[in-house]
Amino acid sequence: MINDPIADLLTRIRNGYLARLAKISVPYSKIKNEILRILKKNKYIVSFEIEDLGNGKKDIVIELNDIRLTKYVPTFKRISKPGQRIYIKQTDIKKSRNGLGIYLVSTPKWVVTGYEARALNVWGELLCEVY
Q: Which of 4, 22, 116, 123 has CB 3.0 to 4.6 Å from 112, enough for a Cys bridge?
């Protein structure tokens, strides 16, 4: 049983990059789908698709960037954990790594980047940092 599915997703992506895999597979959930949508929009992954396994179970197949070509392995850092939730106001959202990274924030408007949360003027739970 996985206690923290978001940390599991980030760890699987990180391990996939370090093992130089082209594709990885993770169990499906709505929040993982939204996190991957943001990662794809910011070019941290190439693409992802939902695969139906039958019996009501789904997987997400993620296609990773080829690090031999990009020479860059993104870093994923989980901030808010199940044992210690971190909530942040829109005025306290700063740039990640002087604008080189992004924060993912779970808001009432769903999962958005830190820049979008500040523009939408909404607060939320600070999920992770990607740089």
A: 116
